[in-house]
Amino acid sequence: MADPVFLITGASSGIGAATARAAAQAGHRLVLAARSTDKLNDLAEELGGPERAIAVTCDVTEWDDQQAMVKLTLDRFGALDVVFANAGFGAKRGFTNETVEHWRAMVLTNVYGAALTIRATIDALRESKGHLLITGSVAGRRQQPGSLYSATKWAVTAMGEGARQELNGSGVRVTLIEPGMTDTAFFDNRPKDPLHADDVARAVMWAVSQPAHVDINEILIRPTAQDG
Questions:
Q1: Active-site annotation holds for 149
Q2: pLDDT tens, N- to C-terminus, the chain (228 residues)
Q3: For tag attachment on the chain, is the N or C end more exposed, with fewer CB atoms within 10 Å?
């Protein structure tokens, strides 16, 4: 496949930006989506400018934004081969330690937003026999005390398996990426010896680089020092 097209939500920093750089190095054209395009424009320019990478303003909780993102992708590049539904953010543990407004935004972004990305891209992925990846978390496999964020990632774990079952036999591959403690803006206090965004990006690209008949359904990746 020449110059496959790789779309990433939550692409402005952290795992999204690291994956964009890794995908560009592997020869992909990039569609970089986030709510703010300030950082995205610089990243798109770094990765080759409008012929190789474009920045798209997209709030993943808005259906119109998601549809416009996919339309722009197809209009500009003519195909959509890989989708990484990566947008998301966290919250403090404890059921009294965040505002209800923060909770609402997190649930909508992490769960509803990921579902909308699947809905918006699924027809194009069927057409290309492409690859859908979703950012889950170790927190979506082991519940954390008082963590609504963890509950959202349990939902994402189920969503990944639901998408895999729906797309079974279509040629579309589905991979759930489940990082542990990662040294990104997600953590206010950086953990000791965490994963780095590049570590997760390598796992993403390893799944994407497998032969078409190989579907890596889940990658659970922790730093060696993480016990939970």
A1: yes
A2: 579 999 999 999 999 999 999 999 999 999 999 998 888 999 999 999 999 999 999 999 999 999 999 999 999 999 999 999 999 998 888 898 899 999 999 999 999 999 999 999 999 999 999 999 999 998 888 888 889 999 999 999 999 999 999 999 999 999 999 998 887 655 555 567 788 999 999 999 999 999 999 999 999 998 886 666
A3: C
Distances (CA, A) of 131 to 128, 156, 173, 194, 209: 9, 17, 5, 28, 10
Number of H helices, E strands in the chain: 7, 7
**Residue among 164, 14, 18, 145 nearest 89 (CA):** 14
How far apart are alpha carbons 128 and 151 in whole angstroms? Answer: 32
What gap in Å lies between CA 171 and CA 173, rounded to an integer? 6
User: Would you kindly state where each structural domain of the chain is located, as residue ranges?
Assistant: 5-221
* Closest to 47 in 3D by CA, of 22, 79, 13: 22
Helix (H) or strand (E) holding 192: none
Taking the C-alpha atoms of residue 21 and residue 46, their distance in angstroms, rounded to an integer, is 9
Of the residues 149, 150, 153, 208, only one is catalytic, namely 149
Four-way CATH pick for 5-221: 3.30.1330.40, 3.40.50.720, 3.40.50.300, 3.20.20.70? 3.40.50.720
Q: How many CA atoms lie within 13 A of 54 on its CB side?
A: 18
